[in-house]
């Protein structure tokens, strides 16, 4: 009797088929606009009233104009200051809450906490900004409360510290819950026997967090830092609404993306393309730097462990 050959069923093709929607979406909405932006940055293409000038190829003149005749560096500085003001408390409270919620000694039921701290992330930034604009305006509820208590009122949206502080605080409120949940997942992925061994050795909570938790969640911290950095460079909606698109006072709250929007609004597509490409390059450089810094640090730790293991 002849043995029937068993048919080998390959499901590999289905994996590629399921990837097609992602690549099509990426091609249409990301790659083609990226190439188009880079292409338009080399052309003089803008509107003067009802008259359109260009497109006319001018090489790197748009890039020269951005660096020599614009205030992009000032707006990048504003963006960095506001991002740091929001990110430092964000990462501090996120690490604190993540360590607290995952502490086995406390045995907290974190379902309700996760919902509460993540809820601000579900609210549109525009709605949040309008709420804060109404609350902290010169005649808003906050200043009325200060007057009622006999305290001097404060023009939050007319002072540099007040405006930047509100923007940073809004960004902190919207994103610290998301960061906390990511860090909680990272800590929960650590082998529990390591924490048990640390407790047996007499390590306190701070020593356990410093020697075990922090080194093992560094890759996730790098991810959080990079994504927050990218989001910081793209900061637009909150300062746009709070300052009515002007970056007041005296453009100290004008971000790089607001500056880019000014060129798009005036239909100066050549300059807008050049600014976009510059921001893209800056984002790539900063992301690679952060990734390499974290990776090199982790590699050094691994090398030290191997050396110690070999010497035993």
Automatic annotation (TrEMBL):
Family per similarity comment: Belongs to the binding-protein-dependent transport system permease family.
Annotated InterPro entries: ABC_transporter_permease, MetI-like, MetI-like_sf
CDD domains: TM_PBP2 (cd06261)
Membrane-spanning intervals of the chain: 16-39, 80-104, 116-136, 172-195, 216-236, 269-294
Keyword Cell inner membrane: no
Domain ABC transmembrane type-1: 76-290
PANTHER family the record matches: ABC TRANSPORTER PERMEASE PROTEIN (PTHR30193), INNER MEMBRANE ABC TRANSPORTER PERMEASE PROTEIN YCJO (PTHR30193:SF37)
Keyword Flavoprotein: no
Protein's name in the database: Multiple sugar transport system permease protein
Gene3D superfamilies referenced in this protein's UniProt entry, alphabetically: MetI-like
Compartments, as annotated in UniProt: Cell membrane
Topology in the lipid bilayer: Multi-pass membrane protein
GO biological processes: transmembrane transport
Organism per entry: [Clostridium] fimetarium
Pfam family, one: BPD_transp_1
Signal peptide (from-to): none
Entry's Gene Ontology cellular component terms: plasma membrane
Keywords: Cell membrane, Membrane, Sugar transport, Transmembrane, Transmembrane helix, Transport
Alphabetical list of PROSITE patterns matching this protein: ABC_TM1 (PS50928)
């Amino acid at each position: 009797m002849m043995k029937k050959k068993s048919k080998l069923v390959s499901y590999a093709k289905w994996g590629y088929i399921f990837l097609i929607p992602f690549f099509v979406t990426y091609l249409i909405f990301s790659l083609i606009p990226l190439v188009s932006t880079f292409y338009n940055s080399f052309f003089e293409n803008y509107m003067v009233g009802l008259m359109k000038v260009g497109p006319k190829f001018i090489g790197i003149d748009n890039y020269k104009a951005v660096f020599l005749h614009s205030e992009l560096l000032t707006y990048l500085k504003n963006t960095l200051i506001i991002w740091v003001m929001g990110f430092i408390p964000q990462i501090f409270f996120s690490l604190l809450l993540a360590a607290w919620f995952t502490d086995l000694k406390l045995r907290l039921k974190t379902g309700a906490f996760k919902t509460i701290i993540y809820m601000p992330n579900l609210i549109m930034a525009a709605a949040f900004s309008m709420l804060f604009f109404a609350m902290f305006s010169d005649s808003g509820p906050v200043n009325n409360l200060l007057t009622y208590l006999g305290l001097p009122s404060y023009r939050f949206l007319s002072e540099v510290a007040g405006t930047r502080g509100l923007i940073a605080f809004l960004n902190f409120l919207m994103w610290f819950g998301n960061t906390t949940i990511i860090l909680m997942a990272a800590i929960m992925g650590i082998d529990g026997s390591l924490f048990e061994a640390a407790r047996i050795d007499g390590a306190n909570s701070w020593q356990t967090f410093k020697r075990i938790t922090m080194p093992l969640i560094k890759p996730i911290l790098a991810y959080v830092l990079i994504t927050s950095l990218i989001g910081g460079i793209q900061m637009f909606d909150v300062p746009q609404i709070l300052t009515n698109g002007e970056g007041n006072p005296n453009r100290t709250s004008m971000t790089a993306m607001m500056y880019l929007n000014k060129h798009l609004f005036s239909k100066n597509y050549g300059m807008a393309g050049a600014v976009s490409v510059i921001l893209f390059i800056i984002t790539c450089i900063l992301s690679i730097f952060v990734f390499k810094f974290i990776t090199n640090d982790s590699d050094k730790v691994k090398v030290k462990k191997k050396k110690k293991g070999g010497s035993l």
